[in-house]
Design goal:
Helix content: 25-40%
Pfam families: DUF2201_N
Number of domains: 1
Shape: flat
Largest sheet: 5 strands, mixed
Distance between the termini: 25 Å
Protein name: Putative metallopeptidase domain-containing protein
Strand content: 5-15%
Radius of gyration: 15 Å
Structural class: alpha/beta
Oligomer: single chain
CATH architecture: 2-Layer Sandwich
Strand order of the largest sheet: 1-2-3-5-4
Number of strands: 5
CATH topology: Zincin-like
Length: 127
């Protein structure tokens, strides 16, 4: 048994089922109140930001592209990562401009790159 919890521990994994919608864009089964057109526009914003990151900053863009995008508005208020995927609330992303979206993508990717999950140790997740 490992000394430190990892993303494989059930305590830090979302318990929601997901289904594949595109190559790397995944959508939760519990669909949001947003229409399909609005959700597609939000996914386009994320794709645009990821494309700009890979062109402007290849190292950070590469980190971001390794995380599949998952719409998770039922439990995620802003954005999150479990070291495997990028979870986002479509309404939150829709309220951001392009530089802010790029910042959020980089922020979550760096949680993974800097192994924040392995460093949590025995700390209690919620106090």
């Amino acid at each position: 048994m490992d000394k430190y919890p990892t993303w494989q521990d059930s305590a830090i994994q979302p318990n929601e089922k997901v289904s594949v919608v595109g190559e790397d864009i995944i959508q939760s089964e519990q669909e949001s109140e947003l229409s399909a057109i609005e959700l597609k526009a939000i996914k386009a914003q994320l794709t645009k930001a990821r494309t700009q990151l890979i062109l402007d900053s290849p190292f950070l863009g590469n980190l971001v592209l390794r995380l599949p995008l998952i719409a998770a508005d039922s439990w995620c208020k802003t954005s999150a990562t479990d070291a495997k995927s990028f979870y986002y609330n479509p309404k939150f992303i829709d309220a951001l401009n392009n530089p802010q979206i790029k910042f959020v993508l980089i922020h979550e990717a760096l949680h993974c790159a800097l192994t924040h999950f392995a460093r949590r140790g025995n700390r209690v997740k919620y106090k």
